[in-house]
Structure prediction request, 218 residues.
Amino acid sequence: MILIFLGPPGSGKGTQAKRLSERIRVPHISLGDILREEVRLETELGRRAKEHMNAGRLVPDEMTIELTRKRIRQEDCRSGFIIDGFPRSAAQADAFDRMLEEDKLKLNRVIYFNISEEAVVDRLSGRRSCRNCGAVYHVKFNSPKVPGKCDLCGGELFQRPDDKEEVIRKRFEVYEKQTRPLIEHYAKKGKLVEMDAAKPIEEVFHKLLNVLAFATAP
Ligand code: AP5
Prediction:
């Protein structure tokens, strides 16, 4: 099962990908998480990526294409994967098509999370992430039991540097220009499924399971 999760920042791709990955037992690959790990480790790539990420721009295609190529060729991806946040440009989509072709893999579906800019600003300004395990919360919509602490590991919750309103709006603008055209790319291939991402988390997940025909799986 190979799935792409496509949509604006804050549309809930990561939240749904984590859940689905646990349910269908295939890895969740988040390009944003991979890049943030490079930044944390202060690698050369991380140093170059950080500046773009904090400004709300895409990091250069050659970096994300290479990171993706390496990641999807790891052992745990043999029975499939959910890729969240890649591709985000025409060059990345072409490179991904070629990667799948080279490895004789078939893309099953592209799930498009459709949501407005205002809803995204509301969501991302309330997002909090765990410094320790990466779990994601929202101060209103998905709050932790104890404010500021992760339910899963007790780690400290923090706000991402790119979740300030001006950077959120820049990310949305970048999405509109560079990523939105991919909707047509995948619609033409007959792979696209659209979700109303403005619905509550449980409802979106339920719809996702229905779409993927996993609703009856244990
Ligand atoms: P990345 O980390 O991928 O950010 P993004 O795509 O902007 O997406 P987000 O993580 O912000 O949102 P999401 O859709 O996963 O929403 P989430 O589930 O967290 O990328 C960061 C940066 O890295 C990019 O800006 C770029 O610089 C770089 N980058 C990454 N990939 C790249 C690529 N391929 N090429 C170039 N550069 C790249 O949910 C958001 C909040 O809403 C949470 O608080 C959550 O609890 C809440 N929430 C989720 N669903 C719902 C719901 N249904 N109802 C109410 N609240 C909800």
Observations:
- The chain has a mean pLDDT of 94.
